[in-house]
From TrEMBL:
It comes from Lophium mytilinum. The lineage of its organism: Eukaryota, Fungi, Dikarya, Ascomycota, Pezizomycotina. GO terms for molecular function: carboxy-lyase activity; pyridoxal phosphate binding. It holds the Pfam family Pyridoxal_deC. One of its GO terms (cellular component) is cytoplasm. Gene3D superfamilies: Aspartate Aminotransferase, domain 1, Type I PLP-dependent aspartate aminotransferase-like (Major domain). Coiled coil: none annotated. The keyword NAD does not apply. SUPFAM superfamilies: PLP-dependent transferases. This is Pyridoxal-dependent decarboxylase.
Length: 494
């Protein structure tokens, strides 16, 4: 089965014209009206004055900034129904609403899509995004390593949620908790700060020359440090390059065995990389290898508003340890939040996640998974990868641009390792410093600026469901070639 993108009105510009931004700013209301404008005038103000000044982001297949997915038609309709029905999906009340059961089924179907056994990953929940999911993962990892350390000392299983981090660590005999990782997303540092471990607890165990890979010797040195508890955070898709921290089942098995010996927790930050598990076939062997063995982790995060192509905001979190979640996130002494008697195994989300007030994020996920199925999502990702590889192929052959990271290996291997992110720079230093802004100025294509080895670089992140490789590559090639031509012309007139 092959599901093609449905016909849709694709914006001609990915960014609004400057005059539209200026006009919208002049029309913004700066004070609260006393009498009110009325619904019709308020809506007209938004649609006529403000909406033209929004960027096209998820509506355009040519928006390659951040890792911004689109919204499939099924997900868009479902999201409107979310607002209409306005469910607070916090307490499991099966006699009153089916909302929590929809969330449970959406998450179990998501597990099926990603080839995870839902009966194993019983702690599963939708969040605002991978950032919130990383907070969950590190918080439960903190709980776990303290529990393991206290068990070694023949103590009762200690809980940070009950005792606080200082008392729990003291009684468990831990001097510190460290987070070992490679090229972590900034949200890992944020999560470490939020849960009381601090940004300084994040330790780089990158392999020299391949910063996305784990230096196993350094990993073993850190995890063996006396008085330390350890959380290992695996980057399943480096945000800058799309490359994976691990490359085989055997590597994950080795990590798992060592972590088990030291009472360590394995967390996977799979914001977009986790979707590589839907792929099959030799064309994607390096991506498939990077996703092998992730089922051996203790917790996994992902973003629905990236490659799943559901509306902002939507992330998901999976864990094999539901009991630890309830220790941290339970709502004690709140009788009005109690779940009515139910033996269906569905946990009230407010007792296993951050929020007590929750939007019905599950419904768009449920709708789009039903609409596309596993075959549809695989085909969608294959198109996105095909475009990324077209761009990478063009850059490798270009006299004006350079594909990053640099490689002396065969072109075929460079292209085959490309997932859905392409990072590159202009060979001319002066053009390179202006490249991101020049691309954005065309308003035909949007890219993110980044850095590589201390120098400016550009990044394409292909994640929109509407992508058609031939069509989008034609636009990208035209933009990149025209920028070089324009820059050269300017130099000739200096």
């Amino acid at each position: 089965m092959s599901i093609q993108p449905l016909p849709t009105a694709i914006p001609t510009s990915v960014l609004p014209e400057e005059h539209l931004l200026t006009y919208a700013r002049t029309r913004l209301h700066h004070t609260l009206p006393k009498a009110g404008l009325g619904s019709d005038e308020a809506i007209s103000h938004i649609t006529d004055d403000l909406a033209p000044a929004f960027n096209a982001s998820s509506r355009s297949p040519n928006y390659y900034g951040f890792v911004t997915g689109g919204t499939t038609p099924a997900a868009a309709l479902a999201d409107n129904l979310v607002t209409y029905h306005d469910q607070n999906v916090a307490v499991h009340l099966p006699a009153e609403t089916i909302a929590t059961e929809v969330e449970d089924k959406a998450l179990s179907m998501l597990c099926e899509l990603l080839h995870f056994d839902a009966t194993v990953w019983q702690h599963r929940i939708f969040t605002t995004g991978a950032t919130a999911s990383n907070v969950l993962g590190l918080a439960l990892g903190r709980e776990y390593v303290i529990g393991e350390a206290s068990a070694v000392r023949n103590e009762e299983i200690l809980s940070v949620g009950e005792l606080g981090i200082v008392e729990a660590m003291h009684r468990a005999g831990l001097e510190k908790i460290q987070i070992l990782t490679t090229v972590p997303h900034s949200s890992i540092y944020k999560a470490a700060s939020i849960i009381g471990l601090g940004r300084a607890s994040v330790k780089d165990i990158s392999l020299k020359g391949s910063s996305h890979r784990i230096d196993m010797a350094l990993f073993k040195e850190y995890i063996g440090t006396p008085g330390s508890g350890t959380i290992v955070s695996i980057s399943a898709g480096d945000v800058n390059t799309g490359l994976f921290a691990t490359s085989s089942l055997a590597e994950l098995q080795d990590l798992r065995n060592i972590c088990d010996m030291h009472g360590a927790w394995i967390h996977v930050d799979g914001a977009f990389g986790i979707m590589g598990r839907v792929l099959s076939g030799p064309d994607y062997s390096s991506i498939i290898a990077g996703c092998e063995g992730l089922e051996l982790a203790d917790s996994i995060t992902g973003d629905g508003h990236k490659l799943l192509n559901v509306p902002y905001d939507c992330g998901f979190y999976l864990s094999r340890h539901p009991s630890y979640a309830q220790k941290v996130f339970q709502n004690p002494n709140a009788a009005y939040l109690a779940t009515a008697g139910s033996n269906d195994g569905i946990l009230s989300p407010l007792n296993v996640g951050l929020e007590n007030s929750r939007r019905f994020r599950a419904l768009p996920v449920y709708a789009t998974l039903l609409a596309y199925g596993s075959d549809g999502y695989r085909e969608m990702l294959e198109r996105q990868i095909a475009l990324a590889r077209c761009i990478a192929d063009f850059i490798v052959d270009s006299d004006d641009y350079e594909l990053l990271p640099r490689s002396d290996g065969p072109k075929k291997i460079q292209i085959a390792q490309t997932y859905m992110i392409v990072i590159f720079k202009a060979k001319d230093k002066n053009l390179n410093e202006q490249l991101v802004q020049r691309i954005k100025a065309t308003r035909k294509v949007y890219v993110s600026g980044t850095a590589w080895e201390g120098q400016p670089a550009c990044r394409f992140a292909i994640s929109n469901w509407q992508v058609e490789p031939a069509r989008e590559f034609g636009t990208i090639k035209e933009v990149l070639q025209s920028i070089v031509k324009e820059f050269s012309s300017e130099g000739a007139h200096d």
